Each structure stands twice: as C-alpha cells, then as structure tokens.
Amino acid sequence: MRRKLRYSIAATAVFAAAVYLNNTDRLASHREGKPVLLAHRGIAQRFDERNLTNDTCTAARMLPPKHDYLENTIRSMRAGFDLGADIVEVDVHPTTDGEFAIFHDWTLDCRTNGHGVTREHSMAEMKALDIGYGYTADGGKTFPFRGTGIGQMPTLAELLQTFPDRRLLINVKSRDPSEGEKLAAVLNALPAERRELIMVYGGDEPIETIRRLAPDIKTASRASLKACLLGYIGYGWTGMVPQACKNTMMLVPVNIAPWLWGWPDRFLNRMEAGNSVVFALGPYRGGDFSTGIDTPEMLAKLPADYSGGIWTNEIEAIGKLRGN
C-alpha cells in the first residue's frame, strides 16, 4: 500500500512538473519589440462610463473635451495613426444605397441632427448630417461641436482609399447575417495583401458568415471569444490551441490574463502559431469587451516587456507611454 502511495505521489509530482515546464513563461521565447496599439474609434471624445446601457446616449455624457476630434472620422483616424496607433478600429452600418457608413450608433438621434435607425438611411442622407450635433458636457447648456461635423461621416470605401496600407479593425454593429454577406463581398474584392491588414469583429451571426465567406479574414465575436478563453483555460496546459483560437482576434482583459497558460510570451507564441493576434483590454466585469488600457496605472498591469496588442481609448496618452 505504501509503495502504491509513493508511486502515486511520484506520478503526480512528475505530471505537475511536466505541466509547469510546458507552460512556464520563464522558458518561453521572448517576443521582442514594442506592443501593438489599437486605437478604439480613432481619437474620440470620452464620456462618463458609469451605469451604461444599450440605450445610453454617450454624447450627452461627454466629459469636458481635451481636443476637437470626433470619433470615426477620417481626421480622427489620421490623428490616431500619427499619435502611434498601429491599428484603428471603426464601426460600420450598411446603408439603403449599398454603402457602408462609418458611424457608431444604431440610431442617429444621439450624436447627430438626424433621426431614426442608421441602417434605414442612404449614405447621401447621412453625409448631410452634423455628426457633432449632440455632444454636450454640461447637460445641454452648450454644444461645442455643433456645426463642425457636417459631411464628416465617411464611407468604408473612403476609409479604404484614404488608408490603403494601414491596419484596420471593422466592427459590425448588428446581428444580421446578411450584413456579414455584404461586408464579405467588399473584403473579397480587395487584393489579398490588403485583406491581410483587416480584421472584423461584431455580432455572432454576421461574423460567422464572414468566417465562412472570407475565411482568410481574422475575426472575433462574443461566441468565439468565450469559446477560445474557456477552451484555453480548460486544456491549454497541454500546449494545444482550441480551434476557436485560430485565425482570430483574441481580446484578453487584464484581470483574466494571469489565468491563461503561459501568459504572456508562451501564450502569445501559441496564438501566433494559430495565425491569431492578441489584444489586452481593461478589466472585464461582466459587461462588454470595450474597456481599454487607458491610463499609466492600467498599462502597469501588463508585464514591463509585453509586446502583444493593446486596445486603448486614449491613443494620445498610451502612444506617448509606448515611446512614440
């Protein structure tokens, strides 16, 4: 009995040592270089993020502005790249005349002087809107950007033409699979070398459609993120990468990252071997994957020599901290 117990203890110790050696970051090949910065919506006006719901008008909760950029505009994206962004994230909606509008909100009423569901308008109609109309930092007493956003809502075609060699992340703002079909058609019409610089994320249904019709595009959805994270936490210690973690964009909140086997370098190397890219986010607290690495304190939660991706809402601050 004692001999069997000793064998059992020895086998357990060997197994634990093997798991440790297979996953310790100390033995991983270190990834050199600076982190890759992703600017959420280019440069945007910040807002009070407390108690947000899907219907919250964030433009009406704007914090006192530090700059005059409006999100999802060509000017804001160009400034984001100039300040150190390697990738800019934009939001798209299909229009009634076959375009894709670059605009965040599901409806026009919050941010613009228009009304109704965004995707139920033509691009010509939305080009006439003032996208700075609804921004206020004092409860509606003043609207500092009114009149400055007329004609500033770009199309996806304009974005691709303006930044032909820049990396982009496109956010599909719906759960409509037909939107995935339309966007896949646009992406498949681009040269292969251009498609390599584009990633797409959004609702489960349109993203699944894009994965099927444009399989070379890296994608992410809530379903794929959950499947990848749970699968990797569950059996990533073996060195195996779940299928859900392949050819994807992986978003990793800083409070979940320490639970990932081999974080950071071994994990990043495994994801790269699966043709995937990783971006660190702010802490996940049961809401959307949208909080960013926006302050020096949050940046300090990442390893000092971290070289993976960083999602930020404050490219103007984080770009400087990275050394740009």
From TrEMBL:
One of its GO terms (molecular function) is glycerophosphodiester phosphodiesterase activity. The keyword Hydrolase applies. Residues 51-322 form the GP-PDE domain. InterPro entries: GP_PDE_dom, PLC-like_Pdiesterase_TIM-brl. Its EC number is 3.1.4.46. Keywords: Hydrolase. GO terms for biological process: lipid metabolic process. It comes from the Bacteria. Transmembrane segments: none annotated. PANTHER family: GLYCEROPHOSPHORYL DIESTER PHOSPHODIESTERASE (PTHR43805), GP-PDE DOMAIN-CONTAINING PROTEIN (PTHR43805:SF1). This is Glycerophosphoryl diester phosphodiesterase protein. It comes from Rhizobium gallicum bv. gallicum R602sp.
